[in-house]
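Workshop exercise sheet. Pairs work together: one partner reads the sequence aloud, the other fills in the structure field after running the prediction. Swap roles for the next sheet.
Pair: D.N. / O.F.
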Amino acid sequence: MSLGADLDRAWRSEGVTWTTRKRIVRTLIDEIVVRVEDNSLDLVIRWHGGDHSSLKVKKNRTGQHRWSAEAETIDLVRVLARQMPDKAIASVLNRAGKTTGRGNGWTQSRVCSLRSHNDIATYREGERRERGEVTLDEAAEALAVSPSTVRRLIKEGDLNANQLCKGAPWVIRAKDLERREVRLAADARRLRRPPSANPLQNELDFQ
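Structure field:
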């Protein structure tokens, strides 16, 4: 009864161990009845004293445990695996500040392990081309401009492109490079002269 008067303080008290918390749980709970459904667990908690509480939680997937990577990271790898090999994926995840379930940085082997556990196919050379997608560098070559110019075209809305997260590659459709407005915007960028920082500098007309 004394414990129940200030359970929150007993649970969160500085220096309390998980062993103590387990003793608290065993003191309060009589039993837990679990019914397994397709993707969830239905729990009925029977407390000492006769009260009942219902709880529904998501069921872990096969191979999932407390050290598993976050679902957001897994979804990110699922998309990146259609764009690049494991070594490049590890670099993108590290730049984005993503970590493994144990808080480690990513390596090629760790990305490979995550893919295997989550049934994510490895990147196959040429699959982007089959889907009609090009990289930023390939788009720059096709438009005869620099990669930085392609980034400006994307930023200003002249060229459609998708980027899943910061550091991930831009996904550009090859057919968009053939659009007249994209070609005109690229030509205008290519012919544009960089302004001088010195207002007194004259322009020379070379024949």
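Discussion prompt: The beta strands are 29-36, 40-47, 52-58, 133-134, 172-173. What would you look at next?
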